[in-house]
Amino acid sequence: MQRRSRGINIGLLLLLSQIFHVGINNIPPVTLATLALNIWFFLNPLKPLINSCLSVEKCYQQRDWQRLLLSPLHHADDWHLYFNMASMLWKGINLERRLGSRWFAYIISTFSLLTGVVYLLLQFAVAEFMDEPDFRRSCAVGFSGVLFALKVLNNYYCPGGFVNVLGFPVPNRFACWAELVAIHLFSPGTSFAGHLAGILVGLMYTQGPLKKIMETCAGIFSSNIVYPRQQYYFNSSGHSGYQDHYPYGRPSYYEEAPRNYDMYTAGLSEEEQLERALRDSLWDRGNTRNSPPPYGFRLSPEEEMRRQRLHRFDGQ
């Protein structure tokens, strides 16, 4: 591990100031851990950028696949780190509170890996289509591809509304594409393919099969996993927020063994229960004294004897 040369990193100082302004206690754990990990690798990079950036030539042709793991966690300079982590701070707080920490950690891990894979496929396809080998050597580094994927998720969960892009109001559903174009118009050195890969991964999750695949894979390792659902609340002006909802009213990752409701319903369907209840109710009207206990309930022998004794006394 190499320690970055010391100097005044204004971007890092601004990032730390923003984190403490929000308050560490107000940042969900996975978001906070992601920020801390990226800051740590900025100050103490595992490898020089030339050995951690992602390219078709290095990964595919030279089989250096560890770059898929290293490239999202390394940044070119302090301003690169600041803009990415400031965006991660806001998106992480919104999405982690909505999705739950464990599922959000799963998303971050999957998106980090998949964004790199999609980036390599895009670069390889462009190089083949245009017969331009420079695209194979183009090397990308940074967390921004993952952030574009998270941006797609955030816009998906918060539809409607507008985002200000270069002073123009843009609908949320088109914001990712507008920002993709705007960034590369005004910052031509950034990785267009890397950001596009993030958008595609986000769409694979929201519109494609990725979410189902992730749920299936998670179920293989833990068949009792509970996926948090959102419970929305409203006021007179419309949608106003959300709350995480868990099946048994507690934020547990593992749910308890399902209850056997047959002991209460006698294994009947809702229609059968209704028919049985109506029939028993009509029978009870003409036979109130000798009626058996309701279906689904069983009296102990002592309670049955006490019931018969009370019935005899009542009859006398």
Helix content: 55-70%
Total strand count, please? Answer: 4
Q: Per CATH, which architecture of the domain at 10-221?
A: Up-down Bundle
Physical arrangement of strands within the biggest beta sheet: 1-2
CATH superfamily of the domain at 10-221: Rhomboid-like
Runs in which pLDDT lies below 50 for 5 or more consecutive residues are: 223-270, 291-299
Going by helix content, strand content and strand pairing, the class is mainly alpha
Radius of gyration, in Å, reads 29 Å
Strand portion, in percent?
5-15%
How far the N terminus sits from the C terminus, by CA atoms, comes to 94 Å
> SSE order in H/E notation?
HHHHHHHHEEHHHEEHHH
How many H/I helices?
14
Largest sheet: 2 strands, antiparallel
The best one-word shape is: globular
Summarize the topology.
Blueprint lengths: L9 H13 L6 H15 L12 H6 L5 H4 L7 H22 L1 H30 L3 H4 L6 H14 L4 E4 L2 E4 H15 L5 H15 L3 H12 L7 E7 L2 E8 L16 H4 L4 H17 L14 H15 L1
Antiparallel strand pairs: 1-2, 3-4
Helix pairs in contact: 1-5, 2-5, 5-6, 5-8, 6-10, 8-9, 8-10, 9-10
Descriptive report:
InterPro entries: Peptidase_S54_rhomboid_dom, Rhomboid-like_sf. It is a multi-pass membrane protein. The chain has 316 residues and is mainly alpha-helical. It has a domain of 212 residues: Rhomboid-like fold, CATH 1.20.1540.10. It contains 14 helices and four strands. Strands 1-2 form a two-stranded antiparallel ribbon. Strands 3-4 form a two-stranded antiparallel ribbon. The longest helix is centred in the middle third of the chain and has 30 residues. The radius of gyration is 29 Å and the shape is globular. The protein starts with 9 loop residues before the first helix and ends with a helix. 25% of the residues are buried.
